[in-house]
Amino acid sequence: MFEDWNVDNSTARRLALTLFDEDQLASDSKQRKFLIRMEFPFAATISPRYEVILAIQFIFESVMVYGAATSIALIAALILHVGSQIDLLCCKLTEISHNCDKEKLQKHIIDDIVGKHQRIIQFSKNIEKIFTYISLCQFVSNMLVICFISFILVVSSHMDQATVIIMKCFPYYIAVNCEAFILCYTGEYLTSKSEDITKSVYNFLWYELKPQNARVILLMILRSQGKLTLTAGKFLCLSLEAFANVRHLSL
User: Coiled-coil segments, which residues (predicted)?
Assistant: First the structure.
């Protein structure tokens, strides 16, 4: 058992040295460098191969970075929009109490509230339908990167070049954690906002309304009990609990 552990430990150290060996980096300083360290079965540093490979790497990295940043920013913006619409819906409920003696105006406001609630639910479902698999790809990739970097940091802590390796890996480790946190926080924010609808409708003095209007509010209470969620692949709800579980697995 100890021999297997020594073999695995030596393999991990060789991996870390391969990725962050300063001697190898110094020897490569006189050669042309790529944005991503790669090995090719041909002379890749000869023009025009070098320029073509460098351009492909630059385009690939740009697409990946801007794609991930744009998708997360778009999800966050849409969820914030849903949250603002929920706040407006809760404010609409307060208008009914000021118009209890005006039945026509009261009925008009209730119809507006029910329609807005329906649009919020439908809009949230559309967000979930569009971004569920995008969120899955980002969440799984973040989890794998976090686990891999954590492994490198733990292994490199017993090496002579531990400081250099940690300084190179730690900023990227923080960036990936922030990306996963933003993704999970948007799901947590949507769920908490959906609970605000239930609380606002339930605390409203619906029993003082006309019977036909009170029945509509009761149906709205029942419908608002279903929480709005943002999932990753329809099997994992994005929340702070999910982020905490990922952090726990990476340690």
Answer: none
